[in-house]
Amino acid sequence: MMPKTNPEKPILRVFAGDVVSPSPVWMMRQAGRYLPEYKAVRAKTSSFLEFCYTPDAAVEVTLQPLRRFGFDASIVFADILVIPDALGQKVAFKEGEGPVLDPIRDLEGLKKLNADGVITHLAPIFETLKRLSAEIPKTTGLIGFAGSPWTVAVYMVEGRGRTDCERARAWAYRAPDEFQMLMDILVDATSRYLIEQVKSGAEILQLFDSWAGVLSVDQFRKLVIKPTRRIVEIVKAACPTVPIIGFPRQCGVMIPEFVRETGVDGVSLDHGVPLDWAFREIPETCVLQGNLDNRLLVVGGDALDRGVDDILLKSKGRRFIFNLGHGIVPETPPDHVQQVIDRIRGK
Ligand code: 1CP
Asked: What is the CATH number of the domain that holds 208?
């Protein structure tokens, strides 16, 4: 169990072992295009990565949802694809299309990756974290994050999002040693990146494994559980008290094994996971986070209230962090976010 680091922050109290009521709340992608004030700042920079590497802009858009909604945690504004960028792969974000990368599909491509400059390249993100830890309210937790090796590898190999990951899955079967090289590079770069985030002020870390659900059981153990466990070990060796949240999206019945084998302190659940089942199957030492359907947040009204109430009922008396099952989508009306916060806090 974690030491009681900062009793003023409800989210850290949950990790320290307390049942906190009402549960702390934050939302994945709480900064972003659903907020007009985000679009206004974003419009000033053409390249999305450059935007992530500009501390003035990144601090501002991280703070925007806190000002509006008073979330219990703030997540540093960056992206999971800064790691391939820092390794020397070409990464671009195209309007309406999302990320586009120069794909890596063979040993030649792997050999071009260079991990030496990762920390220097990502220095602006550490600067953003330092400023945020001075600027956020004293009751708000500061979350740092990275993509998990498998999910980042999917983008590196496929060259884009919205995929069924066929090339990455085939490569991992066809040439497991080569694919392992890629995973090793990512475990090393991601661990160093996360440790530096903690040194810069991150109080909690989240690992996003958005594509974990496409793997067979054997490959899930090899490409999700093992690398996650390595990262947890390396980060904990340097930063023993920082809570780490895993997010193995769409992994259903594999989630208890994921928690047991990786040593994460918390697990973020997608909306397909029955919360009562998760509370039964996952040891109480692991904090659960989740898992409102992000579509309900678009719909609003009574349906949204019922969705929130169901989660509140099932998580009553437990160590829990209220969140979505996946990130806020751009078409979400900001008022619906406020509706959820008010309902949780009984206003
Ligand atoms: O136009 C814009 O402004 C770009 C939209 C955008 C934003 C706001 C992208 C492009 N990334 C982000 C920020 C971001 N991404 C954050 C910090 C903001 C916050 O949470 O408040 C975080 C935590 C992420 C994480 C991320 N990026 C994930 C994991 C979570 C998830 O959604 O599954 C993934 C898969 C990405 C890749 C990515 N970056 C951007 C897009 C549109 C995507 C998804 C592409 C796809 O469809 O596969």
From this structure: 3.20.20.210
